[in-house]
Structure formats: C-alpha cells, structure tokens
Design a protein that fits this description.
Layout: E1 5-11, E2 31-32, E3 35-36, H1 39-47, E4 52-57, H2 62-69, E5 78-83, H3 90-95, H4 98-101, E6 105-110, E7 113-115, E8 131-137, E9 145-150, E10 156-162, E11 171-179, H5 183-188, H6 200-209, E12 213-217, E13 222-224, H7 228-243, H8 259-264
Parallel strand pairs: 1-4, 1-6, 4-5, 8-12
Antiparallel strand pairs: 2-3, 6-11, 7-13, 8-11, 9-10
C-alpha cells in the first residue's frame, strides 16, 4: 500500500441500549472481559499499521477517554481527539476527520467492534485506493448491512443493503472499513436517511457503483458490544480465547494480545 494509513475510531453516540451503564460513562469505556472496550479497536488498528489515530467521541464523557488514553505515547502511537456534538450517523462522524486524514488512506473502526481475526499490514498490501469492507458470515444477516457478492475465489461486492428483509447473502458488513480520501467527497454528496442520519452504507455503495470496492472475508469470530446481550457475548468470547489452551501446552489461545506487546514487536 503506497499511501500512509491513518486510523479513526468512531466512539460517539449515547449508548442508550446500554443504559443505565452509560449514564455516567461512555459506552466504549465499559469493560469487555479484562480491558475497556476502546482497547479492542485500538488493537485492531495498530496491528493494521496505524500509528496516528483519531478518536471521535461525544462531548459528555470525552474527558474520561482522554484520561484513560492520553496522547498515546505510552502505547507508542499518536492519539488525537474530535468531538461529535450530536448524533448524525457513522458517515457524519467520519466527515469530522477530513483534515486529520488529509491525503492519506484511512482505516475506520467502530468503537464497539471486536475482531478475533489476525488482521495485519499484509492484509492491505494489495490496497491501492478505493475502499475495502470486511465481511462475516452470520446466521441473522437481516440485522446488519448485507453485501451481495459475486461467486468465485475473489471477494467482489455487487451491492450492499441495510437491514434487508430478504438478504441476498449471509455476509454482514462489519464495523471496519478502509478508504482512500475520496470518501469525504462521497460523504458531502449524501442526503440524510429516513432516520435523519448520513449512512455509511450509502458511502459504501458509492464505491460499489464506481467499481472501487473490494472486500475481505473474516474467518474467526467477530462481535459488536453495543447491547447487553452482545456485550456479554463479546466478553465471553474474549475470556474463552484467553483462558483456553492449545493442544500445544507451550502456546495459549490469545489472538487479542496485550496491546503493549503488539507495540513492542513493531
């Protein structure tokens, strides 16, 4: 990948589905097993090669986020912060990052998404512009944005539908995206959806329309942590990985390794 890759974590929103846990703190600071939720998307972006990361959060608890993570120096990265004054959708939150991204490519991760797949710099070696989404086969695709993919060895997207009643595939679009900087021009051309928000699915479909969209299949587990049920599920999945051992007694299942260990190895 020729261009520098910057990272963005979208950690805004009111966290209403997790109330009253979110009455006094940002959803993304709640624990998922043994770490605050925000550490998981940080870990994902760092492994993908991002050293310069912007966190977008709401005003009310942004100070707590800053107190936890600081400048990022202790993690070996540079952290910046942006305030989303009011909920306007994922694409609207991403639009606040235009100056930060500049001419770079950007990896965007939703702050409540947790990935077990070992996504690294090598997974983007062939990315030379456009966009890339990360797909996971699920039993209930109607709950998510769903990608229709062309059959074959290559992951090729035909269309993306948001929460369709009759999904054209069982591949949901997870909360991890890679874009070139033309993403901001696409966002500027968006119109609000019926719920009054700028939808990231519409952005992705612009890339599909212009034949600039690629995709990557995830093979291990993925979960969000935005509801009581999914927060419990994510915590259980992480704890099972960290507490179980492989047949080889010298190795431990822990794809989500300590974030400091990731940095030391780079």
């Amino acid at each position: 990948m020729a261009k520098r890759l910057k990272g963005v974590i979208l950690a805004g929103g009111t966290g209403s589905r997790l109330y009253p846990l979110t009455k006094v703190t940002n959803k993304h600071l709640l624990p998922v097993y043994d770490k605050p939720m925000i550490y998981y998307p940080l870990n994902t972006l760092i492994k993908m090669g991002c050293k310069d990361i912007l966190i977008v959060s709401g005003r009310e608890h942004s100070g707590d986020m800053l107190n936890l993570l600081g400048s990022g120096r202790d993690l070996g990265i540079k952290l910046s912060y942006e305030i989303q004054e009011e909920a306007g959708g994922i694409a609207q939150a991403l639009s606040l990052c235009e100056r930060f991204v500049g001419v770079s490519n950007v990896a965007v991760c939703l702050g409540d998404n947790i990935f077990d797949d070992e996504l690294g710099v090598g997974d983007l070696e062939d990315f030379d512009g456009g966009a890339r989404i990360f797909l996971k086969s699920v039993p209930d695709p109607e709950r998510f944005g769903v990608a229709e993919v062309r059959k074959g060895n290559k992951c090729e997207v035909i269309s993306i539908e948001e929460k369709p009643t009759k999904p054209k595939s069982n591949y949901c679009v997870t909360g991890l995206y890679v874009y070139d900087n033309r993403v901001f021009n696409y966002i500027k051309s968006l119109k609000p959806s019926e719920r009054g928000e700028l939808e990231i699915t519409d952005v992705n479909n612009f890339y599909v329309r212009d034949k600039l969209m690629s995709c990557h299949y995830l093979h291990s587990w993925w979960s969000d942590a935005g509801t009581f049920k999914s927060l419990l599920k994510a915590s259980s999945l992480v704890s099972n990985q960290k507490l179980c051992t492989c047949p080889d007694k010298n190795k431990e299942f822990s794809s989500l390794i300590n974030i400091n260990d990731v940095l030391k190895s780079q």
